């Protein structure tokens, strides 16, 4: 299920790779090797309010001090890498930066409201970039298609997004005050994605920073393109290997149909029968002394393939266009996949 929104690996996702490596390594070092430095990365709101230690709003939201939170957030970041491929690294980094800053303000406000209305003190919140991880659930909910995988007991529907929500629920229940971080992240995600008060213009990564990181960090974190032939043997069991081969076969069939439809459209639109306007001059003199033969009728136009004649739902086209794809590519992908929006989305993301 974690690979249903894109191809495997971290290809074209250097920022996601950095978010998996750097905070994970730091969390292991602080938990196992240097526990005496954990206090520097604790998210202590009481120290922020009373001692004005504003630096804790930064350091306390960088590294998870609980390995369970590190594991769950890493799984979610790996799944959400599809948004970096779709938006680009700079836009994806701007979304994380904007939601990270907005959620800090919302967390402080929620803790203060909780204290004044219900006399409940939230002196310390879970550490780490958890608010930005919860914020990524907003585009995941709005833009990733929901496709049913199976049913349990004939009533409970399991979709390609169920496992992601289960991991998010596990992360939500790992700490008593995690719900404050989750609400701050979800609210920040809605504000940034909806561009409320034009926050996307102000909270974004500057161009010179993006260029500098592209020249220095991207070569170190860039991943190689996955080898599809070598990926066939990655399954641990025969069922997994068989499923991988079926997925690869579906992708090859879809790619073949897509290329065939594009060639057919180019032949019908781009090619002109110039012989209809200018007959062959080389044989014109040879045909002067001979009786003219009746001109054979022109060949019938090529019949459209069954995939091309399949009606396409405008609602599905609109959903693919909302993801950033052009209308022409969305139409061709839906026709080639027989209006299967999940296959069309995977095809457009990978090819």
UniProtKB/TrEMBL annotation:
<dbReference type="InterPro" id="IPR041928">
    <property type="entry name" value="UBA_UBAC2"/>
</dbReference>
<keyword id="KW-0812">Transmembrane</keyword>
<dbReference type="GO" id="GO:0016020">
    <property type="term" value="C:membrane"/>
</dbReference>
<feature type="compositionally biased region" description="Pro residues">
    <location>
        <begin position="293"/>
        <end position="305"/>
    </location>
</feature>
<dbReference type="InterPro" id="IPR009060">
    <property type="entry name" value="UBA-like_sf"/>
</dbReference>
<dbReference type="Pfam" id="PF00627">
    <property type="entry name" value="UBA"/>
</dbReference>
<dbReference type="GO" id="GO:0004252">
    <property type="term" value="F:serine-type endopeptidase activity"/>
</dbReference>
<feature type="region of interest" description="Disordered">
    <location>
        <begin position="283"/>
        <end position="314"/>
    </location>
</feature>
<dbReference type="InterPro" id="IPR015940">
    <property type="entry name" value="UBA"/>
</dbReference>
<feature type="transmembrane region" description="Helical">
    <location>
        <begin position="163"/>
        <end position="186"/>
    </location>
</feature>
<protein>
    <submittedName>
        <fullName>UBA domain containing 2</fullName>
    </submittedName>
</protein>
<feature type="domain" description="UBA">
    <location>
        <begin position="311"/>
        <end position="351"/>
    </location>
</feature>
<keyword id="KW-0472">Membrane</keyword>
<dbReference type="InterPro" id="IPR035952">
    <property type="entry name" value="Rhomboid-like_sf"/>
</dbReference>
<feature type="transmembrane region" description="Helical">
    <location>
        <begin position="92"/>
        <end position="118"/>
    </location>
</feature>
<keyword id="KW-1133">Transmembrane helix</keyword>
<feature type="transmembrane region" description="Helical">
    <location>
        <begin position="124"/>
        <end position="142"/>
    </location>
</feature>
């Amino acid at each position: 299920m974690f690979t249903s929104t894109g191809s495997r690996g971290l290809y074209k996702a250097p920022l996601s790779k950095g978010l998996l490596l750097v905070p994970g390594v730091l969390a292991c070092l602080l938990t196992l090797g240097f526990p005496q430095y954990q206090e520097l990365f604790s998210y202590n709101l009481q120290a922020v309010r009373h001692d004005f230690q504003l630096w804790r709003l930064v350091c306390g939201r960088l590294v998870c001090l609980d390995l369970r939170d590190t594991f769950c957030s890493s799984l979610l970041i790996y799944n959400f890498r599809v948004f970096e491929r779709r938006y680009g690294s700079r836009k994806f980094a701007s979304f994380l930066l904007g939601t990270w800053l907005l959620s800090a303000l919302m967390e402080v406000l929620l803790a203060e409201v909780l204290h004044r209305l219900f006399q409940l003190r939230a002196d310390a919140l879970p550490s780490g970039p958890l608010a930005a991880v919860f914020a990524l659930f907003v585009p995941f909910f709005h833009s990733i298609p929901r496709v049913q995988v199976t049913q349990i007991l004939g009533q409970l529907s399991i979709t390609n997004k169920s496992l992601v929500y289960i991991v998010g629920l596990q992360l939500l229940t790992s700490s008593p005050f995690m719900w404050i971080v989750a609400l701050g992240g979800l609210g920040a995600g809605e504000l940034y994605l909806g561009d409320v008060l034009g926050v996307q213009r102000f909270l974004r990564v500057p161009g010179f920073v993006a260029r500098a990181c592209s020249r220095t960090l991207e070569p170190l974190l860039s991943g190689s393109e996955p080898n599809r032939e070598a990926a066939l043997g990655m399954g641990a069991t025969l069922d997994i290997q068989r499923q991988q081969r079926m997925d690869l076969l579906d992708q090859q069939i879809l790619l073949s149909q897509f290329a065939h439809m594009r060639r057919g459209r180019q032949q019908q639109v781009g090619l002109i029968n110039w012989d209809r306007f200018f007959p062959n001059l080389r044989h014109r003199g040879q045909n002067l002394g001979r009786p003219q033969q009746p001109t054979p009728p022109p060949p019938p136009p090529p019949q459209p393939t069954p995939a091309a004649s399949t009606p396409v739902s405008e609602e599905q086209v609109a959903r693919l266009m909302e993801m950033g794809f052009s209308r022409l590519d969305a139409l061709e992908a839906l026709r080639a996949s027989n209006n299967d929006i999940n296959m069309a989305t995977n095809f457009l993301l990978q090819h």
